[in-house]
Amino acid sequence: MNSPGILPRPDGATLAYHKLAGLSPGIVFLGGFRSDMTGTKALFVEDYCRRRGRAFVRFDYFGHGASSGELVSGTIGRWAEDAIAVLDTLTEGPQILVGSSMGGWIMLLAGLARTGRVCSLVGIAAAPDFTEDVVWPRLSPAQRQELQVTGAVTLPSEYNPAGYTHHLELFEDGKHHLVMRQQPIALRCPVRLLHGMCDDAVPWQTSLSLAERLESRDVVVTLVKNGDHRLSREPDLARLGRTLDELLGEPPS
User: Which terminal CB of the chain, N or C, has fewer other CB atoms within 10 Å?
Assistant: First the structure.
C-alpha cells in the first residue's frame, strides 16, 4: 500500500490521509472512535470511487492510526476540526460525507460548519452525542465517581479484551458539541442513515431520532434487521454502494 499523505495542522500535529483525484461530487470517509482509515468500510468506499473515477479522501483523526498524537488527548471538537481541515485543504467542490459510528457525529458537525460544501450525508450506525447519550448512561455511580476523581474510567468492550479507557475531557468537550438537542438540526442536504437493529453499541432508535431532528426533507432511514454495529458484511457493503449510487445518480453496479 502506498504511504499516506501528511496534512500538517497549526499546532504541529499531522494527519495521515489517502486521496484519489476524480469526478465531483467527491466522497470523504469519516471513521469511528478508535477506528482508522484502513477499516473495511473505508476501503470499500475507496474502491467504489476508484472504479467510478470519483474523488475520495480517507484519513485518520488526531491520535488515530497513522496520524500523530495520543488518542487520550483527542476530543470531539478536535476531531471535528480535523474533518473540516480535510474538507478545506484536500477536497474541491461539493462533497458527500460518509460517517461511521462516531464519524456520524463528526459528519454532522462538519456539515453544519461547511453547509456550502457538503451536498449529502451518509450515516452508518451514526452515533451523534454518544458521550452524553450512550456512554454516560451506561456508567454505574461508582464508575462516574471514578471518572470524576481520577479523570478516566475503563469499560469492557467486545472489540477489545482490555476494554476501552474513556477520559473525562472527552465527556466535558462533548457537551460543547451536542447536536441532538438542536431542533431542528440546520442541515438541508439529502441524508441517508443505515443502522443495524442488532447494534449493541448504538441503539438503532438513534437514527430515527436524528431523522426527526434534521431540517432536511430528504432523509431516508434504512434499518437492517440482522445488522450489527459495524455493518461491514458483504450485503451491508452492497447496500452502502447502492446508497451512494442513488445520491450520485450513478447507474447500479
Answer: N
